[in-house]
Amino acid sequence: MRSHEVDYRIWGDDLQFVEVELDPQESVIAEAGVMMYIEEDIGFEAKMGDGSEPGKGAWGRLKSAGKRALAGESLFLTHFTNNGGGRRKVAFAAPYPGKIIPLNLGSIGGRIIAQKESFLCAAMGTKLDIAFNRKLGAGFFGGEGFILQDIQGDGLAFLHAGGTVTEKHLAGETLRIDTGCIVAFEPQIEYSIERAGNMKSMMFGGEGLFLATLKGAGRVWLQSLPFNRIVDQVIRNLPPSISES
User: Which residue segments constitute the domains of the chain, with CATH numbers given?
Assistant: First the structure.
């Protein structure tokens, strides 16, 4: 199924939202709870599945929902469709401060691997799946990196990330990164986990016990402020009477 050809505009700087414009009968899919506003004639419905395979039966949709639940995502996606006669807009907001990353999947090979919980919305026809990292070390020590999102299609998809986002181009190089700072990478990039230096550095360096390693040729998107860091700082600075309750 080819993706719908939607138009968009991103508003804001550090607290962004994306406004998607739909022609009649065009649709966009989004994570549950990220809708900001809809114009008249936009209908929406929570569905089990992304709609990329119209012939998929109930069992297939249930399997897809189960995979999403395993990745910590909502069982349902919300489908927004323009049921009117003119162009209409629907807007989606990122759940925490940061940036929205627009990706034209058709121009980057039709596939991207992303951290779980980074998906915001996409044109109807985009397929959402999960990708397990097969390396044992990634499963036990990679934290966010064990279960990744596999996003496929030929249209627009939008990811959200915390803080500032940077896009790096690897040319057969190796990049070591805090696991939470990875947003997405192209599928030809090899992803693994390695320990963060010697034992002293691991225990007292403050960078965690393990780092993610990305190696190969392709694009990588990184975020400067993963959501887990925001949560850790909030908890660390709570008054004792609150944090102990």
Answer: 7-243 (3.60.160.10)
Indicate if the pLDDT at residue 138 is higher than 50. Answer: no
The vertex-15 CA angle with 11 and 16, nearest 5°, equals: 30
Q: Are 161 and 223 in contact (CB under 8 A)?
A: yes
Judged by average pLDDT, the poorest of 71-75, 145-149, 198-202 is 198-202
Q: HSE-up of 140 (CA within 13 Å, CB side)?
A: 6
Q: How far apart are CA 80 and CA 71, in angstroms?
A: 23
Compute the Cα dihedral for 194, 196, 202, 208 and give only its sign. Answer: negative
For the record, the structure tokens of 75 come out as 């069982």
CA distance 44 to 41: 10
Residue with tokens 């008249």: 40
Residue 97 tokens, joined: 């401060």
- Residues 15 and 12: their CA atoms lie apart, in Å, by 6
Whole-prediction pTM? 0.83
Distance CA 146, CA 212 (A): 11
- Per-residue exposure over 72-95, b if at least 16 CB sit within 10 Å of its own CB, e if not: ebeeebbbbbbebeeebbbbbbbe
What percent of the chain shows pLDDT beyond 70? 76
The number of C-alpha atoms within 13 Å of 31 and in the hemisphere containing its C-beta is 20
Chain centre distance of CA 225: 15
- pLDDT at residue number 96: 84
